[in-house]
Amino acid sequence: MDIRDELRAIKAQAAKTDEITKRENALKLEEENKKKAEESKKKIDVNAEWSTPAAPSVNFKLVSSAEDFNNQSLAFHPDYTHQVFEGEVIKGHKDPKVNVYFTSSSMKPFFSFSSAEKQHDLATDARQCLTSKLPKGVQFIHNSDEFIKIAEQDSLNFKPPGSIISTYRVNDKEGNEVEYEVRKGTFDQPNVLSFHSRMEMLVLFFIDASCLISASDNDWEVYYIFEKQEKYGQTKYSFVGFTSVYKFYAYPNKIRKRISQALILPPFQGKNHGFYLLKAIYADSKLESVKDITVEDPSDAFTGLRDVVDCTLITKLGYFQEDPEDQPTKQEIDELTEKLKLNKNQIKHCFEIFWYKTTDKRNESEYRHLRLAVKRRIYKEFADILSGIDNADDKKKHIADIYRDQEKSWDRTLQKLEETLKLP
Question: Which of 196, 270, 375, 414 is the most exposed place for a label (fewest CB within 10 A)?
């Protein structure tokens, strides 16, 4: 074999060796990828096994005594948890229990956490998740005996913040009348600021997409409801709910109020407290240079409440009660804005409810006139959405669906209106 044959043999051997090496490396990489995939699958399985929905795991409670503290029937759960717990789950614990209790009067918070079993590398730090949401200067109480003692003392000695602007009475489950106070305050009042800071964390759990408001801005007003009970010669207060309102300048010399957040705590819901609170805000605004009142991104529930309150007040003033025309007159709008501080769009919205109420649904011509007028309004209001629907029949169907939902909403409002007109 000459030198050229030897070189060719060496090259062939080298090429063979490279090919073997490449195959070995490919097999090794494939094996590593399989191993990573199996580890990843195990991790996913472990995450699923050790993840618990946060909402049913979080227990809120209003406490004024040791009996309240130990009474599990008083607990209620949040509506939302996504702003506090990532993915709305508590990871790394089996059967987690997050207890966040408040003194029923002063709203001082207590925290405790327990779980049946914990997996350290995946565990959610529930305490840190909640503590990070507390406003500056607010701290959890962690000793249960200390918390119960404070709750009992505050139930006897606590004085609610703000000044009384309205009172009303509601019957309890036993049929006894209970008095409630609506109080108004601003953040330049120290007792208002400290109280609001303690209870404000609740908005993250009960108002979707909410945030804590700036206590340094004195254009905020807050309205609180407190239950007032007289027992054995002593007055006891319990916090019920609140609304925050922001004041804007309105040309030339007035202000416009915008309702930002509204919350009635679950133990007090379904008892018309929201109705009385909104009425009190309207009445209070008549005493100021307020042009009108608006609402910031209202939920469906708050929109329904607002419609009921506004329609109740409009009815008591005698507007839109008999065969209204196609739209309210300028004079009616001006008068209702002045008397009730309603804005123009809300007046027109309420007008449609009364037009629907007074329309004879058996008279096809009359009923059709209403439907066409409202559908024209829907077409303008939802123009951006409808412009993306090319097919004419699909567009008509979409408008018809919105109209049907509108009628359902009107029916709910009118049904509730019958009840509220009987309230004092």
Answer: 270
